[in-house]
């Protein structure tokens, strides 16, 4: 099982980024997928989750109406579209599925 995140980087406040998580080694379409993040001196928190089939989505309250999680099972990929980014969104973002974690990717929101 392997999960690989991409799309992170440095962005100014108010900007946007789209993270991708591409999976291999398991039947991706059969599993829910989550995005977590861990900011400086903070614990890891669940940011967004999408269910098997994509019919259900849940979000951390602080990112609702700004972040959107989606999946493309044909590409074994889940996306996290992040808009109106704030400095407090700065964190390492992790993808999780099938009890496995990606290596994480840095998102920094700063002017």
Fold and architecture overview:
The chain is mostly beta strands and 111 residues long. 0% of the residues lie in helices and 52% in strands. The chain contains no helices and eleven strands. The strands form two sheets. Strands 2, 4, 5, 6, 9, 10 and 11 form a seven-stranded mixed β-sheet that branches. It has a four-stranded antiparallel β-sheet with strand order 1-3-8-7, with no helix packed on it. The protein starts with a strand and ends with a strand.
What structural keywords apply?
111 residues; globular; seven-stranded mixed sheet; mainly beta; 11 strands
Count of DSSP-assigned helices: 0
Distance between the termini: 37 Å
Strand residues, percent: over 45%
Order of helices and strands: EEEEEEEEEEE
Largest sheet: 7 strands, mixed
| Shape label | globular
> In terms of structural class, how would the helical and strand content be classed?
mainly beta
Regions with little confidence, pLDDT below 50 for 5+ residues: none
* Total number of strands: 11
Helical content, roughly? Answer: under 10%
Radius of gyration over alpha carbons? 13 Å
Mean pLDDT level:
96
Indicate the topology.
Elements: E1 2-6, E2 9-11, E3 17-24, E4 33-38, E5 44-50, E6 57-59, E7 67-72, E8 77-82, E9 91-97, E10 100-101, E11 105-109
Parallel strand pairs: 2-11
Antiparallel strand pairs: 1-3, 3-8, 4-5, 4-9, 5-6, 7-8, 9-10, 9-11
């Amino acid at each position: 099982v392997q999960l690989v995140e991409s799309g992170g980087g440095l962005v100014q406040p108010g900007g946007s980024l789209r993270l991708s998580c591409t999976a291999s080694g398991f039947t991706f379409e059969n599993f829910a997928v989550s995005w977590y993040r861990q900011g400086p001196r903070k614990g890891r928190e669940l940011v967004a989750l999408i269910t098997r089939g994509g019919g259900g989505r849940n979000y951390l309250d602080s990112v609702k109406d700004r972040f959107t999680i989606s999946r493309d099972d044909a590409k074994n990929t889940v996306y996290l579209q992040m808009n109106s980014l704030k400095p407090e969104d700065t964190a390492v973002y992790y993808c999780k599925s099938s009890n496995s974690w990606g290596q994480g990717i840095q998102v920094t929101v700063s002017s």
